[in-house]
Design brief:
The chain has helices at about 55-65, 70, 95-100, 115-125, 135-145, 150-155, 165-180, 195-210, 220-230, 250-255, 260-265; strands at about 20-30, 30-40, 45-50, 75-80, 85, 100-105, 185-190, 215-220, 230-235, 245-250. It is of the alpha/beta class. The protein binds adenosine-5'-diphosphate and magnesium ion. Keywords: ATP-binding, Nucleotide-binding, Translocase, Transport.
Length: about 270
């Protein structure tokens, strides 16, 4: 007789964290782009950030792992708590925040001349993580498997990252970010440069990953937000005012019974 009991998936070592943004305001010079944004992104769930261009989603996402300190000059008020600990606390190292809170960008950015194998391991050195040769082989296989890429590339791990298709490159970037075992993964429009098939593969990966890493995804694709996310936040910056969250909650409710008329208009494609 076939045993139909499905065991709950237990992920060894997985430790997804709850990320909470509290009263985040941000400025570029004197231009205020976010106004007191608060949001809880629950552990082991997918949170989608939606809203029109220019309302501060990418800025907000970068603030969540201190990436804005590296690539923009935004100044900031508010706190970001990773399981209750402020990642901006004096004494907490910026590299620590970025290791625990990984990021995948819109445009796939593997190291093009570096082998697939070394691409996956690229973050270890930066984070001073040592692994034995066997440990490295296992980690590369594990991360590529989780990113849904192992079967396609296992016989050509020495090829350069740049030799892959766009969708494969994005999955390689996901594998690379998983190798340091982040507790949260931030994704800024990870599929908007990809074709529908590659997009679907990434969505499947997101669904499988969320039990081990909290995911926050910015997307302009409302069907995608509805498919992949458990909770959703709608950002808006109207008429030059800074971005705020108009509404947030369970994704089903946001899409089928939004409380705010502007949310209803946005999710139904009316602006
Ligand atoms: P979204 O991701 O929702 O499209 P962004 O966070 O990219 O929005 O941008 C929010 C606002 O901040 C916009 O008005 C944008 O012009 C401005 N902005 C974004 N990045 C910078 C930057 N590096 N320097 C100055 N202004 C910026
Ligand atoms: Mg953006």
């Amino acid at each position: 007789m076939v045993d139909t009991l499905v065991q709950p998936r237990v992920v060894a070592g997985a430790n997804p964290a709850t990320l909470r943004a509290e009263d985040i305001s941000a400025w570029f010079g004197t231009h205020k782009v976010l106004d007191r944004v608060s949001l809880t992104m629950p552990a082991g769930r997918v949170t989608a950030l939606i809203g029109p261009s220019g309302c501060g989603k990418s800025t907000f996402l970068r603030i969540l792992n201190r990436m804005h300190e590296l690539i923009t000059s935004a100044s900031l008020a508010g706190r970001v708590l990773l399981d209750g600990e402020d990642i901006y606390d004096r004494g907490r190292r910026i590299t620590h925040a970025r290791r625990e809170i990984g990021m995948v960008f819109q445009k796939p950015n593997p190291f093009p001349a570096m082998s697939l194998y070394d691409n996956v391991l690229a973050g270890l050195k930066l984070n001073a993580i040592k692994a034995s040769r066997d440990g490295k082989d296992d980690l590369v296989e594990e991360c590529l498997t989780k990113a849904g890429l192992w079967k396609e590339v296992k016989d050509r791990l020495r090829q350069p990252g740049g030799a892959l298709s766009g969708g494969q490159q994005q999955r390689l970037c996901i594998a690379r970010s998983l190798a340091v075992r982040p507790r949260v993964l931030l994704m800024d429009e990870p599929c908007s440069a990809l074709d529908p098939t590659s997009t679907r593969r990434i969505e499947e990966t997101i669904a499988e990953l969320k039990s081990e890493v909290t995911i926050v995804i910015v997307t302009h694709n409302m069907q995608q937000a509805a498919r992949v996310s458990d909770t959703c936040a709608f950002f808006l910056a109207s008429h030059g005012t800074p971005g705020v969250i108009v509404e947030h909650g369970e994704t089903d409710a946001m899409f089928h019974a939004p409380r705010d008329e502007r949310t209803a208009d946005y999710v139904n494609g009316r602006f």
